[in-house]
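Lab manual, section 2.4: Encoding a predicted structure.

Procedure: take the sequence of the chain (207 residues), apply the prediction step described in section 2.3, and record the output as structure tokens. A sample record is shown.
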Amino acid sequence: MPMIAKLVPEETVFFLCDVQTRFKNAIFGFDELVLTIGKMLKIAKVLEIPVVVTEQNPKGLGNTIPDIDLPSLGPLLLATIEKGLFSMVTPEVKALLHERPQMKSVVIFGIESHVCVLQSALDFIEAGYNVHVIADGVSSCNKEEIPFALARIRQSGGYITTSESAAFQLQRDAGVPGFKSFSNIIKEEKDNTVRSLQKLVQHRAVL
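Recorded output:
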């Protein structure tokens, strides 16, 4: 029987992978990708989930695009890490996670699906983490690469989900005090969710 890996807020870290200025005009569905990321960061704030951001060679590729409101995360933004590795599992990330042994799950969104996202997912899986990749929150320059990358992650033991499904897994209970804020985000993001799913997921074969 396959392992069941549920998302629990207190045991989860969000990882935003390399959504930088130089990629804006190169990535398939970039605007829709950014919409999903914005929603995930709103969820992070409501559910108090920490976020780690990486930037691949920012001197050449620029910093995280300003459309993504990282300062609004406050102390939930654990770090913005410059990297040369394609994988997000850098020594700095390993140190951050070592300091937080309660963390069991990582949720990944960003680019590119078949390079940094894939290599990060494989490294996190190898390190023993439950890896959840947001299907409407990842992309590549060539959209044809995306389903193969997600299939590779799933074959290796990762979990492919959507932003809304992951959000509801993390929320868990409609009876808790914070549910109204969560529900408001889901309602506010409804049109953006549809747009992102139609652009980034609709034409992919079922994995």
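Check your result against the sample. The first helix runs from residue 30 to 47.
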